[in-house]
Each structure stands twice: as C-alpha cells, then as structure tokens.
Automatic annotation (TrEMBL):
Organism phylogeny: Eukaryota, Viridiplantae, Streptophyta, Embryophyta, Tracheophyta
GO BP terms in the entry: carbohydrate metabolic process
InterPro entries: GH, Glyco_hydro_1
Keywords: Glycosidase, Hydrolase
MF annotations from Gene Ontology: beta-glucosidase activity
Family: Belongs to the glycosyl hydrolase 1 family.
PANTHER family recorded: GLYCOSYL HYDROLASE, MYROSINASE 3-RELATED
Entry superkingdom: Eukaryota
Annotated organism of origin: Sesamum calycinum
Protein name in UniProt: Oleuropein beta-glucosidase
Keyword check for Aminoacyl-tRNA synthetase: no
Length: 475
C-alpha cells in the first residue's frame, strides 16, 4: 500500500469559531459517524459497548473480570435496522463499527454462521441506505478460548467474508490503550503486568503484541487499510526545557505510527528503551514500511506535559479546558489542529481520518428526558473542533474524514453507564428507546446544509410523559 497520493487542499480563510459550516469543507471531505459494535469479552470488563446480545447469534460466552455481561445494553444486535434508519436520517455517508471475534469464531473455530450472517446483514443494509461500512478488525475483543490457544491471528476471515463490500478497514484501534493497560500496568484485562511493571527484555507479551499490531497489514480487495491511534495533544507545562522536551516525547502515538512510515521506532524510543525494544529485520522493514493507506487519529482532549510522572491537566489551580463528564476529558479544541499539523510535518503528510472525537456529560439519573436532550455543550464541542479541523486543512493537512463519537449513548469502558457521549439519548430503563438530543438535530442540519425543525411533536410527548414526576434514568 502506498500513501503518497497527492492530497488537494482547499485554502480558505477561516477562524476557529462556531460559524464553520459544511460548505467550508471540500466535497470529498467525509463527515461520518463512528460507533462501536462490540460484545463484552475477557479483554474488556467495562468498555464501550453497544452490540449486546451476548448469548445470541452463535456467540460463545466471554469471561468478564467484574462479573457483568452485555444483557442491559443497547441491543443493537436485535434492533440494528432501527439504528441504521436513524443514521440515514442524520445524513451520514459512512458508519464505523468493529467486529466481535467471539461471534465470528465461537469456541475458537470458524463455525459462527449466525455471527457472520449478522455482519453481512448489517453491511448490506448500510450499503442499501447509501452508508459506507467502515470496519475495525480488532478492538480489544480476544475471546478467552483463542487467547488460551495463542492462535488469534485469523484476520483473513474478515476479507473473505466481507471484503467484497467493505472497502475501508482499520486493523487496530488504540493499540497504546490495549498494550499499556492490558500488558504493562495490568489495569485492563487480560491483566498481564502490574502498576509497578514495565516492559523488559523478558516481557515477551508486549513485544509480540506490538509486532503483531504493526505486521498485521494485509492486502485487501481494492479497499483502503490503516491503523487508528489515540493521542492526547501535550502542551509544555512551563517554558522550562525539561517540560518542552516532555511535551515532545509524550506525543507517543509515534510508537505505532513511526514503524509503518519509516520502518523503525522513533529515535527517542530507541534511546530510552534500548535493547528492550524489538529490532526489525530487513524483510520486516520492507513489509511494514508504507503498508498503510491512511492514518486514523482519535482525539478527545489536551494536557500539559511536565517533567514528572503524571501529565497534569490543571496549572496553578486553572484547568487546561472545561472538564466534561469524564475526569480525564478537558475540552481543548485547538489541540486537534496542533496534533494534525504535527502528524503532517512528522510523517510526510499522510492521508488522515479523525476516527473519534466527542464529549460526554454525567448520566444524571434524576433528570427528565427533556432535560437530558439539551446538550448544547456537545454542539459547541463539535462546532469548535470542526473549525480547528478546517484550520488544519488550510495549513496543508490531508484530512479526509471525521467520525464524531458517538451517535448513541452506550456503555463506556470503566465508566460504565455513568457518562453519556451520544447524540441520541438512550433510555436504559424503558426499552432502550432512542431520542434525538439537540446535537443530533444540529448535526443533521450541518450535514444536509439546510435547517430542519426540531421534532416538536415527539418532544411534546416526552414532556407530557414527564409532567407529573421525574423519571429515574440509569440501570
């Protein structure tokens, strides 16, 4: 795969303001939606999760370290037709989801006919509605039976079953998250390592994982393939040289990007990690270098970087941005422009897709649905980030698409149901009914280039339903 195709950039004068519109972006810039369709498995105990149906569709049971399961979830498995219809109404032209390996390979064997049928039905329905399916092959979902046998590398089944229709592939999502949390500090399943553990020459798990992530790139049937990395932009905490260097070295997505661009790990990693870092053979360098069509970046927030163990988000009592629902998420829109320009300059101006970007709020179980639908902060978040995306494009960044996180409220990693990222409110108590938040109406207007009225009748019905008392939300 080559990533040297010239990218035309439309240069317009734009300021980072809420006035950015769909017309400010070129016709070939895609505004999509990203949603995780993933079952619970050993490698997730509280994670982004919407597919549910943990015991249906030929799916083998997974071991969950906290004992929970996917029963009280969005059950997209049983209502995906409804959700695709909602995506169509929004006006998106593509939808990103990931695969459940315990559904495709239940018991570790290629006999998951029901699971394969589910994905075929979903893909066919998306295409029938004019929505391109964008598939993430691996999103931390390793069934325990395959982990035990150490044979979870049968990725080609994806291309055999779905490659005739799926033309946009992502091999891995956020390998840094899976590697660090699962194999270094042990905070996430599978729990290898501990909070005091660090990679060493004897720590084969992490070495094998990193190499497999990079070497998994394969040829596909006329499609595009890339990898998605999470990155927090880092600003220096002070003018001290140590803090400036800390900010530079902490932009760690080079760990997984540099090898596929240059054929080796970043020099700063070689200098600091030394012999603990695997060395690529000449054949591996030839295989890996340039083996992608695009880079995916997940961006949510920015921190200050200091020469200290934990990057701070607060300086002199002042946070770097407004805190959202999650304790790690501060709203810093300019960080996405800086990050994209950094990637352009450092990695030969690759084609980039912003594969996740969003903001959450606390799940207030005492709030009415009417109140919960008023998410003006989410509209502002996306408006401001889109404006800085446009600035980055004007600076020459070859950005080709944007996936907001997320169309629907869902199960959010270790935070469970305590926060909500969705443009659609999901009633976890009463049948998982979806209600459009203000942000959904705004995004619909943005994509369709016209102004659509809010669904007053539906909102009125909700208000009537809540007139006598506040209904508890949650699970």
């Amino acid at each position: 795969m080559a990533n040297t195709v010239p990218c035309a950039v439309v240069r317009l004068s734009v300021t980072a303001s809420a006035s950015t519109t769909r017309h400010d972006f070129p016709p070939d810039f895609h505004l999509w939606l990203r949603h995780l369709q993933l079952p619970r498995s050993l490698f997730l105990y509280t994670r982004r999760h919407v597919e549910g149906a943990y015991a249906q569709g030929g799916r083998s049971l997974s071991k969950i370290l906290d004992g929970s399961n996917g029963f009280l979830l969005l059950i997209i498995y049983n209502r995906f037709k409804e959700d695709v219809a909602l995506l169509k109404k929004l006006g998106v032209d593509a939808y990103r989801f990931s695969l459940s390996w315990s559904r495709i390979l239940p018991g570790g064997r290629l006999n998951g006919k029901e699971g394969v049928k589910f994905y075929n039905d979903l893909i066919d329905l998306l295409l029938a509605q004019g929505i391109e399916p964008c598939v993430t092959i691996f999103f931390f979902d390793v069934p325990q039976c395959l982990e035990d046998e150490q044979d979870f590398a049968e990725y080609e089944v994806c291309f055999f079953e779905f490659g005739d229709r799926v033309k946009f592939w992502i091999t891995q999502n956020e390998p840094i998250t899976f590697t660090k949390n699962g194999y270094v500090d042990g905070s996430f399943p599978p729990g290898h390592g501990s909070t005091s553990a660090r990679p060493s020459a004897k720590n084969g798990d992490i070495d094998v994982l990193v190499e497999s992530i990079i070497l998994v790139m394969v040829d596909v049937q006329g499609g595009k393939i890339g990898i998605t990395n999470m990155s927090v932009w880092q600003d220096p905490y002070s003018d001290a040289q140590a803090d400036i260097e800390a900010a530079s070295s902490s932009r760690f997505f080079g760990w997984f990007v540099a090898p596929i661009v240059t054929g080796d790990y970043p020099p700063v990693m070689r200098d600091r990690v030394g012999n603990r870092l695997p060395k690529f053979t000449p054949n591996e360098v030839k295989t890996v270098k340039g083996s992608y069509d695009f880079l995916g970046i997940n961006y949510y927030t920015t921190n200050w970087a200091a020469y200290k163990p934990t990057p701070p988000a607060v300086r002199d009592g002042v946070p770097i941005g407004e805190q959202a629902g999650s304790d790690w998420l501060y709203v810093v829109p300019y960080g996405i422009r800086n990050l994209l320009v950094h990637a352009k300059n450092k990695y030969n101006n690759p084609i980039i897709y912003l594969t996740e970007n969003g903001v959450d709020e606390k799940n207030d179980k005492s709030a009415t649905i009417t109140t919960a639908l008023k998410d003006d902060h989410r509209i502002k978040y996306h408006q401001e980030h889109l404006a800085f995306l446009k600035e980055a494009m004007d600076l020459g960044v070859c950005l080709k698409g944007y996936f907001p996180w997320s169309p629907f409220d869902n199960y959010e990693w270790t935070e469970g149901y305590t926060v909500r990222f969705g443009m659609y409110y999901v009633d976890y108590v009463n049948g998982y009914t979806r209600y459009p938040k203000r942000s959904a109406i705004w995004y619909m207007n943005f994509l369709n280039k016209n102004v659509l009225p809010r669904p007053k009748k539906q909102i009125k019905e909700i208000e009537d339903d809540n007139a006598s008392a506040k209904r508890k939300r949650g699970h």
